Target: Putative NBD/HSP70 family sugar kinase
Amino acid sequence: MTSKHATVRDLRRTNRATVLSRLYFDGPLSRFELSGITGLSAATVSNVTAELVRERLVVEAGQVESDGGRPRVLLRVDPGYAMVAGVDIGETGVKAELFDLAMNRLAAVDLPLPSKRGNSKQAEPAAVVAQAAAGLREVLAGVDEDKVLGVGVGVPGTVEQEPVRVHAQTIGWHDVPLADLLCEAGVSVPVFVENGAKTQGQAEMWFGAGRGARHAVILLIGSGVGASVITDGTIYRGSASSAGEWGHTIIQYGGRRCRCGASGCLEAYVGGEAIVERYRAVRRGKAVAGADEQANLATLLVAAEKSKTAARVLDEAADHLGAGIANLVNLFNPERIVLGGWAGLAIGARLLPRITEAVRTQALRRPFEQLTIELGKLGPDAVAVGAATLPVAALLDQRGTR
Amino acid sequence: MTSKHATVRDLRRTNRATVLSRLYFDGPLSRFELSGITGLSAATVSNVTAELVRERLVVEAGQVESDGGRPRVLLRVDPGYAMVAGVDIGETGVKAELFDLAMNRLAAVDLPLPSKRGNSKQAEPAAVVAQAAAGLREVLAGVDEDKVLGVGVGVPGTVEQEPVRVHAQTIGWHDVPLADLLCEAGVSVPVFVENGAKTQGQAEMWFGAGRGARHAVILLIGSGVGASVITDGTIYRGSASSAGEWGHTIIQYGGRRCRCGASGCLEAYVGGEAIVERYRAVRRGKAVAGADEQANLATLLVAAEKSKTAARVLDEAADHLGAGIANLVNLFNPERIVLGGWAGLAIGARLLPRITEAVRTQALRRPFEQLTIELGKLGPDAVAVGAATLPVAALLDQRGTR
DNA sequence: CGCCTAAATTCAAGATGTGAACGAAAGGGC
DNA sequence: GCCCTTTCGTTCACATCTTGAATTTAGGCG
Model:
């Protein structure tokens, strides 16, 4: 309803949440600094922090002398207060990781998915759920469940919330109640599910190349292509959480067929799978036979040093990517664009200047000037890290609402 | 800074603002109904409305008997409390209108701009400012200025706020301090400036085809192409207010040259000017000589009844428009898309089914199913109406902050 | 005229943020 | 060693706000 505040108690919740968030993101801070940053009076900060300390969520962390006067006592969120798990469901495998509140990795496990290449559907929900539950059991082995805030899951498809329903047109998932399925498979901590591009985006925003930006777009270029749009600090979801499907925007009307059914989608030009495919087609089968796309793309990148054909394929991909990014620039006017995903990172490492130049020529001048384009800092684990931030996010803005 | 509430006084402001907004948008309401809608207690509603009535912003508006008990007294914002002006700066003319608070049109005037077709720049800022000021003088003649809340101006370019700077790549405006210029030209009421597509969008959201939607995109297809993206009820501006430049997104990589300098922009395929141009090219000069684009497009639409060539040009435009809309659907996942602008309304009246079908085949299935596509309800005056809503919007959320 | 119902207002209670006063913890000068 | 200064943190009286309950108001109906 009028979700905003009405009662004087909501005020307290809001203030608790902002203090807690500030402490979480801006590291150890003294009460004095908190007062300046949050705009709250010193009295209120004292009040709120006392509560948080009493609940053991926040702990003292040393002192800082302040020329002459009483030293400031630093406060920070206790990393050991709780743990969170993150699961990255990819098209070929499942990754499960365990973190403390400060996102230090405590455990990790990688499980393959049965590849039924013969079968049209790549991964049955049941098989995926089984592997995810197995992975979680492994990283949570010997851990007190009361200490686990929850588990976040990043999936390659759009996720509707309340109730959680996963749709992934490209791998044949429709209306999959993933959270419920995981519960039934024995996962007994709270489950949060979100699109993988969005979890990766949150990870880069919180800890990676997106830090400090209020408007940004984090790109996920793997086999497929996705994006996470951050508007004024929060992930944009649209009316049914499926916003940000950048990979299936059309940049070449009537162009190459895409696995989504339409023609000329960006994904058909710049997705890792598409690029490798393209190289294969251009060379008429004379190359890259292996099944591992990541290895194939690496081979292609090396080949481009000498082969003009290979270089041309990559340049073409970079130019099309530039067009796709230019569209984002014109539509969203972000201050930063971050290139992530295994294919994005691989291509970007070598071709970022060309990509940037392609954006410059195809975007409007003004918004381009207000933009920086960077590579992701968290590598391919970002999806799992971001998934694990979901329970943390819930903690940060619910603290007090419970 | 932490713009959100901190003190218990801000709470009052917020509640005043929500009550006032509710009264403004949802017409006459009783205190009892207000209590239900806003979630506030009856006591608070009584309190807040008493204040608003005392300030003459809200007045009683009749009664409604409620089976048996004390009848409810209806309250509404007093349309006569103040007036607002709206100016629509187009590429060929300036429109100025005066409204009361309920957006009843009290006066209107249309002034042409000196067309320097020979000159490369279409409209010097100075000439535009002079005409706008003249128009305002005319509609404000004999009006008590204290009663005028302010004037909103819709311009065909992006508008950076604080300080106001207008950039319009297509008509050669760079860094134009329009608000200041209007002040210097003798406009003595508060001036608000915003992109025309955005003001049109706000008008359709408040009073037209967008009512009730929280996520929507309002398209403005005139000579050029623009859009206003509404995310969760508010216009999306991006980091420097230039978000929503949909017309210059690329849908045909390497395609037709656009006046913005890039190739394959949507505007080069579906803008009113582009369509007429296209028809002229296809017929090799055999047609449409007049200078008035609107008349030319009308002619084309009639010709399409019989001429296959004309029909083909229009169908092609509709299909490309479908691709452009599909991109919006995939990126923003809106619940509604509204087609506006003189060209959009003209084409849509005849081709909406074809456009919708084109969207269906090119967008992802799920977000398409959650979408409706409609024509704008306010006609070509929407830009001016929306401009006039800017001071009203300021009133609605500042009431109490002042 | 009195009774009944429902809306609107009043009132006391509970919760919160704030500024000012107060207390605490250092360093520096003598 | 003592006192002063500086700066951070806490306490407390106060003003403001929302709320639920009690009370008042305004009509309909018998």
Remarks:
- The longest helix of chain B spans residues 308-332.
- Residues 6-9, 11, 30-32, 42-43, 45-47, 50, 66-73 of chain B lie near DNA strand C (CB under 10 Å from a C1').
- The radius of gyration of chain B is 23 Å.
- The domain at 211-377 of chain B is CATH 3.30.420.40 (Nucleotidyltransferase; domain 5).
